[in-house]
């Protein structure tokens, strides 16, 4: 059942994960047996019923002859929806013979937009945007799931519009591109992106998701007649709604018809903030959050993928400038603490040639620390920047209480436990900037296993962005009940 947590996260974050689970022998239900690994009842269907809540397709194979059809259906559903699917196979059927599946094209063939709906949606978008004086683009977290990043870039360059991204889609549009104006996140936006987004009279939102977290407690929630929404498979604007229009097809088709209008870039040039360089701290001064972020920023390359854990790591990472090619992973929708450690492990297995870095708080780290042993076992050179501020700082800023305190660990020494005399993981503790720089240099030389750097921080040392965001999210959570 613990796997359902990850599957729920994959559903929320639009990730096509295939979960394959065993189930009881097909004879046990009719025999009214009680079995281990169950709820101790004669009902064995509850697991697939639970799976249906967190997947786009859940199938149970009760006869071997049904396997080709049901497995193809589950996999194709996951690929098309970019959501997880669940396949349940009884213990006595796993090796049972069945007919071979048909051509793989039945599973992999892409879905097509309805041509008439696509053409009509593009025409409406051309008319809508053509009447705006200050149109711009906003990229959302579903852009990648829709395989529409390339089409979005094509549209941006065809329009000349300013481009902002939401925090869940950081790195989906190149940050070194001249039309990039930062992360739109209300009061905690980067590069003053909120000034332009709030000022624009026409906002094309591509794959966007507006939640209490992404809108900073509903204080930055674009809506109304100025909003044109392009979702993964449908298009909507005031007075119009088109289904069976795939996002990539729509963006690419619109790029062929739209007129160039760089008014928002001209306006942005008037208030674009000057780049500010974070000064290096005194080498022996007590380590601060800002110095950790500055040094992590200096490690980023086009080949880097930066994971930021739920917490202050969100805000540290969102503020960083990504070189072209660098990727950024954040779990903004599901928001599960502890997700980054197992996620970066899986990512490093699947993308061994990329440089994987994770920023994680001590509280989150304690939830899924066991996955570090897998990094040691598979010799994965993941860099773990562990922010040790003795508790759940993000929760402190939303709603403080004794429950946000945790037992401190010797995190740097913990790596030797996972090594068990044979692994090549490294653990270091940094109390100041010099020690952190030395540890990062040693991590770069360790290609045979993970390196964990425990950064000792004051409990109250967090970003001003977290403080502002926490205030507004806390206020939204504490709204009194509406009268009925």
UniProtKB/TrEMBL annotation:
Record field: catalytic activity: a 2-oxocarboxylate + H(+) = an aldehyde + CO2
Enzyme class: lyase
Residue stretches making up the Thiamine pyrophosphate enzyme TPP-binding domain: 331-455
GO biological process, one term: aromatic amino acid family catabolic process to alcohol via Ehrlich pathway
Chain positions recorded as Mg(2+) binding sites: 362, 389, 391
InterPro entries with a match to the protein in the record: DHS-like_NAD/FAD-binding_dom (IPR029035), PDC/IPDC-like (IPR012110), THDP-binding (IPR029061), Thiamin_PyroP_enz_cen_dom (IPR012000), TPP-bd_CS (IPR000399), TPP_enzyme_TPP-bd (IPR011766), TPP_PDC_IPDC (IPR047214)
Domain Thiamine pyrophosphate enzyme central: 123-238
Cofactor(s) in the UniProt record: Mg(2+); a metal cation; thiamine diphosphate
Co-factor: note: Binds 1 Mg(2+) per subunit.
EC number: 4.1.1.1
Entry GO CC: cytosol
Taxonomic superkingdom: Eukaryota
GO molecular function: magnesium ion binding; pyruvate decarboxylase activity; thiamine pyrophosphate binding
Short name of any one Pfam family annotated for the protein: TPP_enzyme_M
Record's keyword terms, sorted: Decarboxylase, Lyase, Magnesium, Metal-binding, Thiamine pyrophosphate
Family: Belongs to the TPP enzyme family.
Protein name: Pyruvate decarboxylase
Source taxonomy: Eukaryota, Fungi, Dikarya, Ascomycota, Pezizomycotina
């Amino acid at each position: 059942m613990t796997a359902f947590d990850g599957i729920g996260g994959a559903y929320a974050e639009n990730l096509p994960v295939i979960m394959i689970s065993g189930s009881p022998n097909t004879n046990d239900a009719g025999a009214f047996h009680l079995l281990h690994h169950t709820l101790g009842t004669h009902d064995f269907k509850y697991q697939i019923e639970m799976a249906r809540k967190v997947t786009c397709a859940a199938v149970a194979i009760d006869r071997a002859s049904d396997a080709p059809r049901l497995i193809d259906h589950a996999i194709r559903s996951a690929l098309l929806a970019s959501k997880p699917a669940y396949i349940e196979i009884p213990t006595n059927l796993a090796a049972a013979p069945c007919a071979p599946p048909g051509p793989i094209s039945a599973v992999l063939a892409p879905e097509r937009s309805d041509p008439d709906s696509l053409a009509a949606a593009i025409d409406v978008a051309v008319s809508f945007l053509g009447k705006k004086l200050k149109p711009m683009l906003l990229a959302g977290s579903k852009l990648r799931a829709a395989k529409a990043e390339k089409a979005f870039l094509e549209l941006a360059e065809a329009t000349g519009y300013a481009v902002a991204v939401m925090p869940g889609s950081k790195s989906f549009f190149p940050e070194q591109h001249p039309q990039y104006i930062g992360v739109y996140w209300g009061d905690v936006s980067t590069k003053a992106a909120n000034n332009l987004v709030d000022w624009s009279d026409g906002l094309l939102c591509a794959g966007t998701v507006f939640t209490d977290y992404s809108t900073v407690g509903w204080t930055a929630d674009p809506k109304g007649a100025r909003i044109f929404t392009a979702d993964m498979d449908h298009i909507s604007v005031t007075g119009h709604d088109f289904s069976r229009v795939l996002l990539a097809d729509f963006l690419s088709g619109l790029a062929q018809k739209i007129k160039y209008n760089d008014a928002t870039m001209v306006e942005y040039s008037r208030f674009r903030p000057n780049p500010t360089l974070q000064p290096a701290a005194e080498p022996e001064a007590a380590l601060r959050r800002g110095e950790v972020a500055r040094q992590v920023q200096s490690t980023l390359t086009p080949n880097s993928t930066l994971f930021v854990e739920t917490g202050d790591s969100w805000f540290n990472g969102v503020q960083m400038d990504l070189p072209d090619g660098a990727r950024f992973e954040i779990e903004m929708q599901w928001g599960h603490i502890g997700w980054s450690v197992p996620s970066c492990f899986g990512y490093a297995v699947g993308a061994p040639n990329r440089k994987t870095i994770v920023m994680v708080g001590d509280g989150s780290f304690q939830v899924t620390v066991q996955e570090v042993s897998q990094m040691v076992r598979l010799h994965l050179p993941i860099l773990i920047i562990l922010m040790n501020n003795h508790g759940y700082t993000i929760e402190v800023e939303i709603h403080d209480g004794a429950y946000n305190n945790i037992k401190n660990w010797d995190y740097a020494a913990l790596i030797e436990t996972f090594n068990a005399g044979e692994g090549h993981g490294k653990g270091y503790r940094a109390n100041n900037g010099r020690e952190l720089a030395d540890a990062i240099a040693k991590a770069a030389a360790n290609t045979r296993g993970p390196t964990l750097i425990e950064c000792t921080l004051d409990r109250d040392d967090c970003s001003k962005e977290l403080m502002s965001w926490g205030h507004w999210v806390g206020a939204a959570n504490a709204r009194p009940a509406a009268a009925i």
